[in-house]
Amino acid sequence: MTYFILPVLNCKNNPLLENWNTIYETIPFSKICNNHYEEAFIKAIEEGKKEINSIIENTEIPSFENTIEALDKSGSLLSKVAGVFFNIKAANSDDEIQEIAIKVSPLLSEYSNYISLNDELFKKIKLVYNQKETLNLNTEETSLLEDTYKGFVRSGANLEGKAKERYKEISTRLSELALKFEANELKETHDFKLHITNIEDLKGLTDSAIEAAQMAAQEEKLEGYLFTLEFPSYIAIMRYAENRSLREQMAKARGSIAFKNNEYNNTNIIKETTSLRLEKANLLGFETYADFILDNRMAKDAKTVNKFLDDLYTASHKYTIDEVKEVEDYARNNGFKEDIFQSWDFAFYSRKLKEEKYKLDDEEVKQYFPLNKVQEGVFGLANKLYGLKFKEVHNIDKYHKDVQTYEVRDESNNFLSILYTDFFPRPSKQSGAWMNDFREQKVINGEDIRPHITIVMNFNKPTTTKPSLLTIGEVTTFLHEFGHSLHGMLSKCKYSSLSGTSVMRDFVELPSQIHENWAMEKEWLDTFAEHYKTGENIPNELIDKIKKSDNFLAAYNNDRQVSFGLIDMAYHSIKKPIQSEIIDFEKNVFNKINVLPHIEGSCFSTAFGHIFAGGYAAGYYGYKWAEVLDADAFSLFKENGIFDKATAKSFKENILERGGTEHPMDLYLRFRGKEPNNQALLRRMGLIK
Fold it and tell me: How many helices (H) and strands (E) in the chain?
């Protein structure tokens, strides 16, 4: 029997505080009510504090086992509750969930500070750390000790008096601001609705996009067609609508998310957040927040990051100018007569130019990528590379009817993980795509606790006449998030704080981005890509067109990602609070790199959740950093064969299984045999031969 979220009559017993007698101890979603969460957080925090106090009150001499290991094991109930709540908040939220998040945020900040600013606990940690050379620890134990000690220092453990109190206040306020930023972005994204009643206004749109918009209108009990700022709906207008005013309306709506003159405006949140982050860094002895963050990254310092981004910009920007000029020239040669070529024109005409230049129709390509076949291909890739087997199971509770669940086993049939997949947009879900875990991998009392992983995306829903059909870009997105999930599912670590994706932020994208490379490999595409109607295999000539078109606008897209890294670094390299308007601060950074006119009334930063509501502050460069790693790493697969078992085994054992148990460069060198450079990436983008 398959379980879904259903009305629950009895919400008295709190399942979040009980042991789950379910298959693989999976979450009993259908028994959890919203009013369970706050109580569960409060009791889990109380239990966590008791566990911390027991470490402090232990009269034995502090040791690795009774202090460092004990600390890693503490808070397991809180991890369990938070694992449910914050995944639901992202994937199936409502106003009540958002309110609960705001309520529990200060409680979680206070709990975090209770641990990290606890003098007695830090004394014990420091005592163990000072003996590290004599403790005979293995590599993973050494990493846990190093990370624990450094984590406490970076969390203010050495602060005293007023400085420590101020640190607590800043931590609490930053948590509140991140939640408010995210809630504002979500509210503004989902409140926008473009209701069209005249089919003539939709000239140029594909049949599937029109059908999806008609279904969206019907769900809202409206006549005609409904478009939203969810990516599949938004991009349908931007790329295909011949009605220029519709494209302009959508572009301005998306660009003004959380930047309007209303209560959901995020500009003051950005100012306060960056100011508090600077103050926090100063308290800890760093000149800027970027210095603080990068002290614990592969890149090490802002100078290295800025040079890295500048090198990529220098390599691509001259080509970006040529690419944009080519699109504009094409537009003007094909009837475009407006004085200014705008961003909402660029998306439309670049799509048309791509189709003409490579004789490639995105709609034709999509016919060969129905979601179910893509999923077979992605699972098949994991089988070919790592021997993994996926079996859909129907006796696991789900938080929404769109979710599917899979039992994952290795080539010896050992259980590895539960995988949840959630593919379609809805008003209760954040935009974008991500991977997370409901339960992380760890070893407790000799038992390997296997993870429960979720991947969440926002692909087009099936319509009454067609299945969900993916663009090649969406196939790549699937591979990306699935790569993250492999990092979680294949983890073989002892400690939860080091397992799976618990690695340096500028390394975490390597497992995801390397798997994107298979999207351009005929040998892989031939294993699954077939026409959703006829069952015909994807033609070789179509694959050739896809590969040839892969670098279309490569420089422009590189500049775009570099610009995101630059604005992130600018916000977090300030040495005094921002006094100017946020839009002026942003323009000062983007003017150097952007080649299309700024849209009046728009602001990118107010919806930049990665750095203001996620974990990428002073770290967005990590996507490009990891791209260098993945291009270099994949070149080894290209040398040895894209399904080469030995290469895949080495990648699995040295990267995917090891989590954060060693420094990432040590792991990378063990796999690759040499340090990376950006030549493979520039070559892949076609910027060098």
Answer: 27, 9
Question: pTM for this one?
Answer: 0.89
Q: Residue 688 — left, alpha, or beta (φ > 0 → left; ψ -120 to 50 → alpha)?
A: beta
Query: Do 436 and 445 touch, CB atoms closer than 8 A?
Result: no
Type and span of the H or E element at 449: strand 447-449
Q: 182, 328, 474, 481: which is the annotated catalytic residue?
A: 481
The region that residue 17 occupies, defined by phi over 0 for left and psi between -120 and 50 for alpha, beta otherwise, is: alpha
Segment holding 226, helix H or strand E: strand 225-227
Q: Are strands 194-196 and 225-227 parallel, antiparallel or unpaired?
A: antiparallel
Catalogue all structural domains in the chain, each as residue range(s) with its CATH number.
33-158 (1.20.1050.40), 192-255 (no CATH)
% of the chain at pLDDT higher than 70: 98
Contacts of 447 (CB under 8 A, 6+ apart): none
Distance, in Å, from the CA atom of 205 to the CA atom of 29, rounded to the nearest integer, reads 39
Residue 481: active-site member? yes
Q: In this structure, what token pair is assigned to residue 407?
A: 């039992």
Q: Tell me: the pLDDT tens digits for 223-235?
A: 999 999 998 899 9
The H or E element containing residue 453 is strand 452-456
Average pLDDT over residues 238-243: 97
pLDDT in tens, 545-570: 999 999 999 999 999 999 999 999 99
Residue 490, pLDDT above cutoff 60:
yes
**H or E stretch including 681?**
helix 679-684
Integer Rg of the chain from CA: 25
Mean pLDDT for 584-597 is: 95
In this prediction, residue 416 carries a pLDDT of 98
